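User: Round two. Same drill as before: sequence, then structure, for each protein.

Assistant: Same drill it is. First protein:
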Amino acid sequence: PALASELGEQQQQVQQQMQVQQQKTAEAQQKVDSVSEQLRKVQTELDRAQGDYKSVQSKLSATEEQIKKNMVILAATEKKLAERSLILNNRIRDIYQNGQLSYLDVLLGSNDFSDFTTRAEILKRIINKDLELILKVKAERELVLQTKAELDRDRASILVLKQTIDEKKKIIESSKKERQRVLDAAVSERDASEQAYQELA
């Protein structure tokens, strides 16, 4: 009878311990489910942030490509302006060096000065044409410089946005690691209590 009583007590203790392990397993499983859901949400956030980052990176690349093209156009416009200015400067220098008459002689290949007024008018028109072209090229250059300023502003704001998204992405990645760590611990806890239950059983 004493042995039976002792065995009964032992069985009761084992059953209590089994209940404790079952409770632990249930609690650990709840934690696993809860953290798994949190992890799924964090992953969705991370996917969205990575998508935003990719989109901003693509926008940045496109803007930088536009800046390169614009710089090529600017260089060509600067060259055109320098060439036009040189032509005008040379014409004006020739007029001052040779005097209007001899410049016109050279220009028109004529020694007859009776049509001086006409030829002076032609010279004036040529210089005006040069000036018109220079003003036109200057206007083109202004437009290119304006585009350059706009593109530089765009690039700067995209870089700020990229940095913001990058920081957000890092925070989410860190949160994901933390959630994963908690999940791994909960899974280990559940497995250990299940193992203990099986051993008691």
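Second protein:
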Amino acid sequence: RFPSISARTLERIREMERRCLAEADHILTPSATLARNLERICAEMGVAPARITVIPNGADRLKAGPRPHDAPQRYFLYFGALQPWQGVGAAIAALPRIADLDIALVICSSQPPAIGRALMARARRLGVAERVHWRHELTREELAPWIVHAVASVAPLTETPRNLKQGCCPLKILESMAAGTPVIASDLAPVRELVAHGEHGLLVRAGRPELLGRAMRALADDPAARDAMGRRARRRMRRNYTWGGIEQRLERWYRGEVLGTRGASWRMSRARTN
């Protein structure tokens, strides 16, 4: 995220990370991708990887409400922050590939308008500014109907260390699936943990607007397929990723692994003392 940081500072940060990993009793992560990276680092350090546990993020079904009164007739949706690794520029660049379709891209940014100026300028250069509709800093209640009534949501994450090595577990994907809205997302390891291509949405190679546009066209032209994907996505969420279920898994892990281990260590310590 900060490529200008000096090598000396980076090494100090890495040393802090190594110390945290070495001294932690347990390591919890929301992504199997990050867990694999942590296991590799721990193995290099001689730290037991069995202490790493994956419990993903979750999402609850949204209360849709009526269709937004100012929504385009048909639209794809991006919602979230606008950092470079989110790949929003690829979604804008895909629009010329579907210029013959009467469909818009709605960007519900969690940040103020000034943050999106570069992306707005890109839309103007590509001649698609009128097809990109911006909404900023919506509340959860205001955002929900935009998700539910979209043709599909897009998550064009970039092929960068932020997404591949850190191992994200994107809430925008989970929340879209919980709403029964199919997802068009980058074909990255952390995304494949959540979305099966053709089952819950479509996965395309990151950084390829032409492939993103092709996937957008496929879902725009096939309402039966996208409805089926949306239903399967909602079922997957209901079975595996509701916040209630995630919280129960977290509580079981904490009581069994964390408190259980501490309790056993305390009892052994008392026995040696006595």
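The radius of gyration is 22 Å.

User: Perfect.
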